[in-house]
Amino acid sequence: MREIIDWYNGYSWDGKNFVFNPYSVINLLYHQSFRNFWFETGTPTFLIKRLKEENKAVNEEINNRVDEAVFNKYDIENINITAIMFQTGYLTLKAVDYRENKYILDFPNREVRESFLNFAVEHYAGSSSQEMSYIVDTLVDALAHNDIKSFFAAIRALFSSITVNKREIVLVGFGFDKAERNLIDYSIEAAEVL
């Protein structure tokens, strides 16, 4: 039951009561496997494009306190990306401070978090889902077997198709600060020596 909760529970409109995604639970029971069912019903291309246009990090609105006013803006010329992500189910209320009218937003569950971030990586990096899946599997396998050479080869493969400028956009888009970006650049350079 814990795994079902982790994957498919978490939608809330008050930060106290949480509900399951019925579509995903029905598909879990039918297919007898955990997958990103809800995400198959549509992809957030529009949201990712808006995040990039506004130079916002993908994780910028996650676990941050937002003002109630965010949800009260409906100007089509100036759409608030946080409100759209909440209204479309990519973010949900995790906690509410009624005294200050502040809300903590986060992905509702593992299904939405993994799906959204995987899609965002593909979109920011310009890689196919198959390519990204292979690289992630290689990274995980290399770490599991303490195979540093294969790990850095996968890191190199991940960033080889991304120009330095585009790599900077990808890393900034996912909220890496300057020190973290420098560490990643150093790791890529070290990987090239191996």
Overview of this structure, please?
- There is one protein chain.
- By secondary structure, the protein is mainly alpha-helical.
- The protein folds into two domains: 2-110, no CATH class; 126-193, no CATH class.
- 54% of the residues lie in helices and 10% in strands.
- The strands form two sheets. The chain has a three-stranded antiparallel sheet with strand order 3-5-4, with no helix packed on it. A two-stranded antiparallel sheet has the order 1-2.
- β4 and β5 (102-106) form a beta hairpin.
Entry keywords:
single chain, 194 residues, mainly alpha, 2 domains, three-stranded antiparallel sheet, two-stranded antiparallel sheet, 5 strands, 54% helix, 10% strand, AAA-ATPase-like domain-containing protein
Q: Would you summarize the structure shown here?
A:
By secondary structure, this protein is mainly alpha-helical.
Largest sheet: 3 strands, antiparallel
* Count of folded domains: 2
Count of discrete alpha- or pi-helical segments spanning 4 or more residues: 9
The parts where pLDDT drops under 50 for at least 5 residues are none
- Mean of residue pLDDT? 79
Secondary-structure element string: HEEHHEHEEHHHHH
Cα distance spanning the termini: 44 Å
Shape: globular
| Alpha-carbon Rg, integer | 19 Å
The secondary structure category is mainly alpha
Characterize the quaternary organization of these chains: single chain
Number of strands: 5
Helix % is: 40-55%
Strand arrangement within the widest β-sheet reads: 3-5-4
Percentage of residues in DSSP E strands: 5-15%
Protein name: AAA-ATPase-like domain-containing protein
